[in-house]
Specification:
Largest sheet: 5 strands, parallel
Number of helices: 10
CATH architecture of the largest domain: 3-Layer(bba) Sandwich
Oligomer: single chain
CATH superfamily of the largest domain: FAD/NAD(P)-binding domain
Number of domains: 3
Structural class: alpha/beta
Bound molecules: flavin-adenine dinucleotide
CATH class of the largest domain: Alpha Beta
Radius of gyration: 22 Å
């Protein structure tokens, strides 16, 4: 019997790959291996509706087990892949079994950074990646009163807003001068204002020195000298790509598993996609690793089609969103250094988009309160057309009219 296509990592990229393989007509054996106990689910709600308790696990799952059964996807859940032999095309699992593969997708994603801060191992100090993490934070938030959020990147800032919406007293500690520093000063200032309007105390330009307590967390001490009594803390300091399987093989690792524009690693028949993949992006002319939900699904779908011989380049302008209280911020594309920035709308009204140009070409846009701008910016970026910056800045000019005529 033919060897299966094996997908390692059962979340957004893994689910997208197996779904695409079947949709595109692959009828051969197909195995999805994942070390979490449940079938793939969406992570974005974990810091939003799921943590608040307004959506449950069933509502955020991509499919139930019967669906995978129906599509003849063999699910190996709660099982970890421990070693990869690219010469023999075999993968070893921690239940003692081995799988041969004809083609393999590494969709192992990332795991949270846990810097060696004193006391980080205390009970009550959480981080958030999985549904189990979200359950633990929710349980702590339902009984606790005071929370400290460490790091105000996308996930940390969402967690701070959600815990506040759940009625906790929240203090957030962030070394940068604003939250969401990667999205620019203006967005950072608006998000800082939002947190303060909702009663979150922000300690910006500060960092955690230690988590204190006997076995259980009782306080968080900052380098700036504050001691914050706390019932729970949530650490949101970014992720590291889960690259272990590639180590010791011919697959190159450099801030993620290195793949070309067709999602191929250096080993024959082995692909990678999603948070774990550092991919050559034809439009950018360089490699980039992206930690966004839509990207994980789209890139894995491209990898799946390429396994079936499509020969497709993956060149999507990367898009993501984040919800901060009632404000949705979106971004698409990648700015270039030395590029020009044009603004449309009003920061004060929190309805504004910033467009980033490389010469006359739009390469990125970020904004809040003007979702159609970002959707159309994505289409303009993908079309690669030249645009007049004055048109981008003028809200009376419809972005749709700047698109090439079909
Ligand atoms: C709380 C939270 C909120 C987010 N919100 C947003 C948002 O608002 N917008 C946005 O665009 N993105 C958001 N993201 C990011 C988005 O969820 C990720 O980009 C996406 O989950 C990446 O999918 P993936 O399949 O590549 O990797 P992952 O989701 O990391 O999945 C990889 C899976 O592989 C498993 N695995 C790893 N190694 C092995 C192994 N050796 N054997 C077996 N299994 C293994 C892991 O346990 C995991 O289940 C959020 C992420 C989090 C955590």
């Amino acid at each position: 019997m033919a060897e299966p296509i094996v997908v390692i990592g059962a979340n957004t990229a893994g689910d997208s790959a197996v779904t695409t393989l079947r949709r595109e007509g692959y009828r051969g054996p197909l195995v999805l291996v994942g070390d979490e106990p449940q079938p793939p689910y969406q992570r974005p709600p974990l810091s939003k509706e799921y943590l608040r308790g307004t959506r449950d696990l069933e509502a955020i799952r991509y499919h139930d087990l019967a669906h995978y059964d129906e599509h003849e996807v063999e699910m190996r859940l709660g099982v970890r892949a421990t070693r990869l032999d690219t010469a023999q095309r075999r993968v070893h699992l921690d239940d003692g079994s081995e799988l041969g593969y004809q083609q393999l997708l590494l969709a192992t994603g990332g795991r949270n950074r846990r810097p060696p801060i004193p006391g980080i191992g205390l009970e009550g100090v959480h981080d958030l990646r999985t549904v189990a993490d979200a359950d633990a934070i929710r349980a702590a938030a339902l009984t606790g009163r005071r929370a400290v959020v460490v790091g105000l990147g996308l996930v940390g800032s969402e967690v701070a807003s959600t815990l506040r919406q759940m009625g906790l007293e929240v203090t957030a500690v962030e070394p940068q001068p604003t939250p969401l520093a990667a999205l620019g000063d203006d967005i950072g200032r608006v998000v800082a204002e939002l947190h303060r309007e909702h009663g979150v105390e922000l300690l910006l330009g500060d960092a955690v020195a230690a988590f204190e307590g006997q076995e259980r967390l009782s306080a968080v001490r900052t380098r700036g000298g504050r001691r914050l009594p706390a019932d729970l803390a949530v650490v949101g300091l970014g992720i590291e790509p889960a690259v272990e399987l590639a180590r010791g093989t011919t697959i190159e690792v450099d801030d993620g598993i290195v793949v070309d524009e067709r999602c191929r690693t250096h080993a024959p028949g082995v692909y990678a996609a999603g948070d774990v993949a550092s991919h050559h992006h034809p439009r950018l002319g360089r490699r980039v690793r992206v930690e966004h939900w839509q990207h994980a699904g789209l890139q894995a779908a491209t990898a799946a089609r390429n396994m079936l011989g499509a020969g497709e380049d993956y060149d999507e302008p990367h898009w993501f969103w984040t919800d901060q209280y009632d404000l949705t911020i979106q971004s698409v594309g990648t700015p270039v250094t030395g590029g020009r920035e044009v603004r449309r709308g009003s920061v004060e009204e929190r309805a504004v988009s910033w467009f980033h140009l490389d010469g006359a070409r739009l390469v990125a846009a970020v904004g809040m309160g003007r979702p159609r701008d970002i959707a159309l910016a994505g289409r303009l970026i993908a079309a690669g057309v030249e645009v007049d910056p004055a048109h981008l800045a003028d809200p009376t000019v419809r972005l749709r009219d700047l698109l090439p005529r079909p």
